[in-house]
Amino acid sequence: MKPIEILLVEDNPGDVRLTREALRDGKMKNNLHVAMDGVEALAFLRREGRHTAAPRPDVILLDLNLPKKNGREVLAEVKSDPELMRIPVVVLTTSADEHDVLKAYEYHANCYITKPVDLEKFLDVVRSIEDFWFTIVRLPSDVGHGPK
Questions:
Q1: C-alpha–C-alpha distance, residues 91 and 62, integer Å
Q2: 119 pLDDT above the threshold of 80
Q3: Cβ atoms within 10 A of the Cβ of 63, count?
Q4: What's the sign of the alpha-carbon dihedral 58, 127, 42, 54?
Q5: Fewer CB in a 10 Å sphere around the end CB: N or C, the chain?
Q6: Measured distance CA(22)–CA(14) in Å, rounded
Q7: pLDDT tens digits along 75-112
Q8: Residue (of 110, 40, 107) closest to 80 by Cα position
Q9: DSSP states of the chain as a string?
């Protein structure tokens, strides 16, 4: 079975490390790719610059508070691009603000999760994302492996 391709768009090195740790201990073999800002995330998704050989992610884990281009802008661009719009986007952010939740769903986020501050709860959340998106949900076969 091919590994699951995950794009984590996160500028906090601690959260990147914790996410990597949670996924390393997970049930599914996966390749975690990290973009530290919104501009890099879009370059990865569009296979531009140093990302020309980037795989198409099966799912995107997206923080909202990013440098250069924020997560709301990234989400809006992904969901308005016919080449990218079918990739599920999980907003994983510290914001519990109702306005942020509403806007994320207006921009067609597939789900919105507020990051817990507790270490073990954060690890549990990441593992539950993996369980849900790769064990329960059926994804279109062209999301992660189709042509650009």
A1: 5
A2: no
A3: 26
A4: negative
A5: N
A6: 12
A7: 999 999 999 999 999 998 888 889 999 999 999 999 89
A8: 107
A9: -PPEEEEEE---HHHHHHHHHHHHTSSS-EEEEEESSHHHHHHHHHT-GGGTTPPPPSEEEE-SS-SSS-HHHHHHHHHH-TTTTTS-EEEEES---HHHHHHHHHTT-SEEEEPPSSHHHHHHHHHHHHHIIIIIPPPPTHHHHS--
Q: How far apart are CA 133 and CA 129, in angstroms?
A: 6
27 burial level (CB within 10 Å; 0-12, 13-18, 19+): exposed
- Report the chain's C-alpha Rg in angstroms: 14
Amino acid at 92: L
The closest alpha carbon to 100, from 64, 147, 126, 132, belongs to 64
Residues 6+ apart with CB under 8 A from 121: none
∠ Cα 71 77 80 (to 5°)? 135
Question: Tokens 């501050």 label which residue?
Answer: 117
